[in-house]
Amino acid sequence: MTQPLILLGVLILVALAGMALLNFRTARLAEFANPPAGKFIDVNGCRLHYAEKGEGDVLVLLHGSGSMLQDFTASNLFELAAQEFRVIAFDRPGYGHSTRPRATIWTADAQAELIHCALAGLNVRRAIVFAHSWGPLVAISLALKHPEAVRGLVLASGFYYAKYDLEIVLHWPAAMPLAGPVLQWTIAPLLGRLAWRSEVAKNFDPRPVPDTFAEFPQEMALRPSHIATTVMETKLLLPSASALTCEYGKLNMPVTIMTGESDRICDARVHSLQLHHDVPHSKLICLPGEGHMIHYTATSAVMEAIRLVARESR
Question: Which domains are seen in the chain, by residue range?
Answer without folding.
Answer: 2-313 (3.40.50.1820)
